[in-house]
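Section handout 9: paired folding examples.
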Amino acid sequence: MKGMSISKQVIDWYQSHGRHNLPWQIDKTLYTVWLSEVMLQQTSVKTVIPYFIRFRAYFPEIYHVAEAPVDKVLYFWSGLGYYARARNFHEAAKIILDKYSGIFPKTFFEIVNLPGIGRSTAGAILSLALGQHFPILDSNVKRVLSRYYGVVQSSNRRETEKHLWSISEKITPTKNVREFNQAIMDLGASLCKPLHPICTICPLNINCYAKIYNLFDYASKKEYKKTMPHHIKWLLVIQQGQEIWLDRRSSDGLWGGLFSFPQYNTEAELRLVLDKYKLNNFHIYFMEVIHHTFSHLHLDMIPIWVDLPISCEKINYGVVGCWYNLVQPPMIGIPAPVDRLLKKIFLFQHSMRKNK
């Protein structure tokens, strides 16, 4: 086993080349480390930093999160994606407030049983915040270990994951665990990238199995590659004055718990709604198609814009939703493509009024 050498090599590299000035490193508490680790799940550091700063400024402590409505938490998460993370974070904060008087627990068993926290995240929180001896296995660490030790099977397999956990346990040092865990994550993010790893300056390149046998791409390959599905949705944009109707989406599926335009699978479905509410009597505009790519699908959204006169009786166009004020936007969670379209409508109408 190469475990005795890898930890020292990685720590030595980190001390000279690692990241030491991230916002959650400068102000390191159990809360800030927890928040950063959740935000960093499937999201890059560069993307997370502004969201972390904004979230922390509005929710300085755990009890601020727990006492806030989930819509406000989702508002500050909007654009970061994977919104189940935000809902779980809010739910966990409420549990911490009720069960632990707002003080983040300090045992692995208590932490790993909170919503949205698995073994690796719990280990990262305790090791990075408190220096406790726990291994980690996030996607960056999986990639480093798979390549270095020649674990050639798909990293998604249970057997392979068990093997990688065993390696992580053996190489995680008792001393300097905080530095090692941060270092190996940094190494995976900055040098041992999924594509085009920078092997020439990697501190592990001499004994790395993937480097020696020129197999560095295998760790990021799936057993088979699916073509991402392409979905088309029709959006109903109902505007009355400065307000636009938004539906709250169900907690499961895309944009769970966020607010979005009413959405339909076909134009025929949308036309039925236009007939139901007698919206065909008003000005209807076909807007530019919105293209958006998720990690697992391509989505084209076709917005149909209905501009209702102020004199019309204002009604709700869904079971759960709200009238979104373009001038004074409410603090609710909105997906990035929806937010962009709302801003586009506002700017278009603002420019039209100025030119009159």
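Moving on to protein 2 of 2.
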Amino acid sequence: MIRLLALLLTAAPLLAATPPDPLAPKSSAADALTSPLAAVTHLTGDPASAARFYGTAMGMNRLDFRMDAGFARAMGLRGRPLVMRFTRPVDGVAVDVVAVDSDGPNARPAWQARLPGVLGLGFPSAGNEALDARVRATGFASNAGLTSITLPCGEGCSYRVGEVHYRAPDGVLALGIDRGSMKPVGVIDVDAGVGGPAYASIVVSDAGQAKRLLGEVLGFELRRETELETSGPSGGLGLPRGTRFAFQQWYAPGAVSGYVIVMAYRGGGGLPGVAKLGPPTRGIALLSVATRDLDAIAARATAAGMRTEAKAYAKPAIGPVRALWLRTADGFPIEVYRADPEAD
């Protein structure tokens, strides 16, 4: 007994040193009306570079499809373009890469973080030094090398997260996220040292509208809401020192990955969009979640005063679906879909 007590006393400081995880689920997946973030669509003017980034640098698996003509029309694209779908074997958000004209509009030229729309994707990392060597070997540059950010985890509690921001094609930022002793934001492949995308981050001009869309309509739960301030242009976002922004993290109930980060700049820190958000503009053009009840989503959207766009088409790797497109205040589309068993 004395020996056991001594062991417990020795271990106590180590146990106390691990902060509570603010991103742990607050409810059960049984409460979820929608899935976690299922896929993002990346429209690219350089499909070879995009394939090299997701496939070689980030170690994702590729499967090719031809886009359904109806889906292509909904996306404002011609014909039935090739869809390169990148996934991880266990989990992670799928990335559907589709080639568009290289001289077409780009939602985020020069990786400008102050513009509205999806800023980037976050990848769980087992160690950013090794990830950095891997990604740089494939020819992709980092915005600022290895950086870190301090995040709150409760009253008087904080923890540090290692970050590295890569310049993926078409103005997309890809972050390696190393949470140290905290649980990773997604499953990490042991051999690659990195997992599939765990989240998408989106810049909005109206955080309140985004909160209604994600919370009241989709039923996501808000696990973190805070305000952050940049340390200067040497940081991963390349923003002036003291730039402040609201920061929210939204999860489907019960989910541990596939979440959405919302950022809204304070004090005029944001910029107006330079191109129409969503397809056929280059960059991340669509976020997609599945639902078990599309009618419930429509009713919630109406109650929240939001317009919906009803669509029907076939999705890569899924088949025929019925879908509703919802939009942020800046016009970025979020697709909510349900498999349609009655379709041919």
